[in-house]
Specification:
Blueprint lengths: L6 H5 L6 H23 L7 H19 L1 H6 L3 H21 L2 H8 L2 H11 L2 H6 L2 H16 L3 H7 L1 H23 L10 H23 L7 H6 L8 H64 L4
Length: about 300
């Protein structure tokens, strides 16, 4: 019987993946430098909470791909799916709330700003951020990696595992872009459609989660054959727990995002009502001035 790792061994079982370390480190440093320049520039400073949000997203990505979740996730399915949850549901919103494109506009000069504008308004960006495409890509790719033999391939092959994690993070970022609208977009949905967009994804993931929870056999042969005894679970229980991690954790994120969208919608309508009242007030004042002027004209003696 394989001996279970001690708490110390588990907590310090970090993976050294040079590609992820370089990419995540470069993203964190580039954002921090751009934030420093924006705070010292003449334009409106970037809010500090956006720096915290972006760096928190980078940290959670590192937790998913370099921490013990990565090493033991290749042996225990529910730990693997916990990493998926971080990469697809938690880290991407935090990264996007950092508004990296807006920050880039604030620190770039005129020529670079024009290039960025043409980039995010270009055909490729318009296709990649089209809400129907992002929804279908997110649903299709997540199910492909989570419920096919590719899951076992990724657990056994480091290159496939890196491809799995990178593609899941990328497609999750695309999915959350139209929902959060934290940066300029070619396609900007109203708040009602953003809420519907998330609600449909939450509902359909719930249906699929219920379907897989009711299954009586494990889908991943590699995990079934190599499940360590110290996990204390049968293969089918490991699979059910993995699905619960994704389902329940994902629903918490979706509900929080829906509440946030509703809150922003209320604020938007309140601002609109204030602007309308202000504009009507100006019109009433102008009308009163015209009436007073006409009254003075017609009240003069002939």
């Amino acid at each position: 019987m394989e001996e279970a790792p001690s708490p110390g061994e588990f907590l310090w079982a970090f993976s050294f993946d040079a590609a992820w370390i370089v990419v995540l480190g470069a993203a964190a440093l580039a954002y921090a430098e751009a934030f420093r320049r924006a705070r010292g520039g003449p334009r409106q400073p970037h809010p500090i909470w956006k720096l915290v949000s972006f760096q928190g997203g980078v940290l959670l990505c590192a937790l998913a791909v370099l921490s013990p979740l990565e090493r033991y996730g290749n042996q225990v399915l529910w730990l693997n799916f916990l990493g998926f949850l971080l990469l697809t549901m938690v880290a991407p919103p935090l990264l996007l709330f950092g508004s990296p494109l807006t920050l880039a506009f604030r620190v770039c000069g005129g020529q670079k700003r024009r290039y960025l504008r043409s980039l995010y308004r270009g055909r490729v960006a318009r296709l990649l951020t089209f809400p129907i495409f992002t929804w279908l890509a997110f649903a299709g790719l997540t199910y492909t990696w989570q419920f096919t033999r590719l899951t076992d391939e990724a657990a056994a092959n480091g290159v496939v595992r890196d491809l799995q994690q990178a593609s899941l993070l990328g497609v999750a970022l695309l999915f959350w872009i139209p929902a959060l609208a934290a940066d300029p977009l070619a396609w900007r949905m109203p708040h009602t459609l953003r809420g519907l967009y998330l609600f449909v994804e939450m509902t359909h993931k719930g249906l699929f989660g219920g379907m897989f929870l009711s299954a009586n056999q494990a889908f991943h042969a590699g995990y079934t054959a190599n499940l360590p005894a110290w996990a204390g679970l049968s293969a089918i229980d490991d699979q059910r727990l993995a699905i619960l991690v994704l389902w329940l954790g994902g629903n918490v994120i979706f509900i929080a995002a829906l509440i946030g969208i509703i809150g922003r919608w209320v604020q938007y309508e309140r601002r609109n009502a204030h602007r309308t009242d202000w504009r009507l007030g100006l019109e009433r004042e102008a009308f009163a001035r015209r009436e007073a002027a006409l009254e003075q004209i017609f009240s003069r003696p002939l």
